[in-house]
Design a protein that fits this description.
The structure holds two protein chains of two kinds. Helix content of chain A is 36%, strand content 4%. By secondary structure, chain A is mainly alpha-helical. In chain A, a hairpin with a 2-residue loop joins strand 1 and strand 2. In chain A, helix 1 crosses helix 2. The longest helix of chain A has 18 residues. By secondary structure, chain B is α/β, with parallel strands linked by helices. Chain B has a single domain, classed as Amidase signature (AS) enzymes. In chain B, helix 7 packs across helix 9 and helix 7 crosses helix 10. The chains are: A mainly alpha, B alpha/beta.
Chain lengths: 92, 424
Amino acid sequence: MSDDAVTPETVRHIAGLARVDLADDEVDRFSEQFADILDAFESLDAVPDVDADVELTNVMRADAVSPGLDTDAALENAPDHEDDYFKGPNVS
Amino acid sequence: MSDDIFITEDTIEPTGGGLLEGRTLAVKDNISTAGVRTTCGSKMLESYVPPYDATVVDRVRDAGATIVGKANMDEFGMGTTTETSFFGPTDNPAAPGHVPGGSSGGSAAAVAAGEADLALGSDTGGSIRCPASFCGVVGIKPTYGLVSRYGLVAYANSLEQIGPLASSVEDAATLLDVIAGPDERDGTTQEPPHDDVGSYRDAATGDVDGLTIGIPTELLDGAEAGVVETFWAAIDTLESQGASTQEVSLPSLEHAVEAYYVIAMSEASSNLARFDGVRYGQSGGYDGNWNEAFAEARAEGFGDEVKRRILLGTYALSAGYHDKYYKKAQDARAWVTQDFDTAFDDVDVLASPTMPVTPFELGEGLEDPLTLYLADANTVPINLANLPAISVPAGTADGLPVGMQLVGPAFGEHEIIRAASALE
């Protein structure tokens, strides 16, 4: 077990950042499992600093207008919409 | 049997004729099919119907294939058993009562059961090779950039590729011929650097005379005795046909599983942020503020393993932990890549058991995520290094299928196809 054990409060905090509601029993189960998994991740401390030999090439295309999804197709899977807009919950 | 192989059974007719004329094909349910629902094995997308086809779907239909269904999978590709699917587990046709592997378990099972001649899967850390191995079929994870991911629902973009499954190396190679090649809709695709080597299908000659095969000792250390025995018997078969073998050491592989999971979970936490129940998917309703509604949608729509990976990825990228986990994982990834490059200075291909274990019994491993993660030890290094690999049946251990994994240098698909075909 790593020194900084994963507390239920930590799991709740992370779940808040990730926008995932958790039930109390999920928080308890994840706290235990995360302690084991993060303990395994500790072994990465032994990895030396490595410079990646990156051979990346940019792929460019012409900045030209081309057809995309039409509005009806884009709205087809939305749980709800108003006119040509997705309907979402209140911003604040 | 077919009920648990496919999430949706539907016929999508070919649009042309060619290499796949008359062949039936199963498509993993994270690959978009216009007008046919594409669930990713998740409640979140239970009724999502894509308005467009993935590039690989266009290409197989153009080549004459008939799609017969959308295959079951671990939710969003996150699993090694296909048991995390919201739609329930799939039995293994080659070993009833056992898992088919994952995450492309439905794709491999469709081929093994004869429900389809061919299948498409996706492989982020072994998700084509593991089920190929467990179901006794052939699966290829192509070099990063060989096959377009346009229309693949993303899990971890820097790692994943779409690839073929089939009952023979030649059939898998033929399907690769159809789907490979640049696509203007996926900027990571590229033309293979050597275009004078013929088709992949023609590489399935079975000729391994003079081939040098490296065997990374790190990938045998953790494997079950029966798997190792079957592996060496298959190596003997290759040697009897003129291949030579030598042991090699890639010390970085000791850290590959941990590096893989940090990177894959981090990318997943970002990719899956799009599922907020507004444009598609499970709605969180319209009461309260948007953070509450999104958190509700995601609580209802995602299963345990997906939540686990999103949370761990969020943790690994959060302030104070980024350097400790994510940056070290990227260092490990660069180290793994260098180790493979060095190994290929001396050998043509590398060989290992695809999976260190034989198929789990259904329901056996779900309670202990870390044990399942460690079962990916032999497959994840290949994704970290962007390399091609094939899993081909090597025999059985205690009556259960064992696969051999052959790994090639980048865009070395021909070499691994040639070597794998010598085992048939």
